[in-house]
Amino acid sequence: MKKIETSFTQMMKCDLPIIGAPMFLVSNVDMVVAISEAGGVGTFPALNYRPIEAYREALQQMRARTQKPIGVNIIVNKSNTRQTEDLKHALDHGVNLFITSLGNPKQVIIDAHKNGAKVVCDVTNLEHALKVQEMGADGVIAVGAGAGGHAGPVSPLVLIPWLKKELKIPVIAAGGIADGRTMAASLALGASAVSVGTRFIACKEAGVDQSYKDAVVKASPEDIVMTTRISGTPAAVINTPYVQKMGLDLPWYLKLLKNQKFTKKFAVPLIHLLGMKTLETAATGPTWKTVWSAGQSVGLVDEILSCQEIMNKFVREYEEVVRELPPVR
Ligand SMILES: Cc1cc2nc3c(=O)[nH]c(=O)nc-3n(C[C@H](O)[C@H](O)[C@H](O)COP(=O)(O)O)c2cc1C
Hints:
Blueprint: H1 7-12, E1 18-20, H2 29-37, E2 41-45, H3 52-65, E3 70-75, H4 83-92, E4 97-101, H5 106-114, E5 118-123, H6 126-135, E6 139-143, H7 156-166, E7 171-174, H8 180-189, E8 193-196, H9 210-218, E9 224-227, E10 235-238, H10 241-246, H11 252-259, H12 261-284, H13 307-324
């Protein structure tokens, strides 16, 4: 198997600096196993498996099928009531990498380190990156503009070298990386690895509806819009007729409830619940309510491939791009 060695691959003891990014409703056991077996690190959001028994079973299956490093994404904000249990089961099953998002990762870092696992934290700016470095994180995932999910506002061209310059821990690039060319660019900018989401929606192993995969293949970067309707904070989706009909902002009454001190506590989980339900309906079967989560790298996705084929393609293209860079004479 080919290898690309970086501080990330040394830390994770894997062959390729590629993380299969955790994707709500998309990442599954088959994808995690295939990406890890191909030399990267496959990861998934713990909440993709509900109830908790299904999550434990998923971890068991992954561990039965691969001994390579695997990762779990834990949302570390207060609304996630399962985080302590999710962390414990993951550690019991020898999960090697944790990706934290949306809150304070301190407890995950402490417990993971006691068990020899590593923790990398999603960040979109230097302030947050310095905080998690101070807490003991093993790396940051720099989520730049154009990413799928909750994209950051800063261009990856600036975000990656900015964080690289200011931090002592490895920086992993996320957002807009979908092939060997974008991976080479990210490593040139100073990243130790890339975290790839959108490209893997259009993989054979994903259990999402065929229409979702086809939409990712067909869409152009200009079809991606940011909506607050799913979670209250801007998230990237494909601009389907249903998204256009609903508008990109919360209806006035939900906004009002979200912004009032006394109703906020109930309004935020309600917005999440409604948004997740809509995403789930669109991801799992045909519906006219199509809200499909994806980032701008849809423009670089031309076909549905297996995870192994996607990983091979990354390495092949990376080699070509690096070889063809103009030398200094
Ligand atoms: C469909 C979809 C679902 C996602 N779900 C999650 C999630 O549950 N937790 C999380 O931390 N990030 C999530 N993300 C963000 C990804 O982990 C990753 O940061 C992002 O996809 C990278 O950008 P890219 O899509 O341009 O590759 C999601 C992204 C997509 C496209």
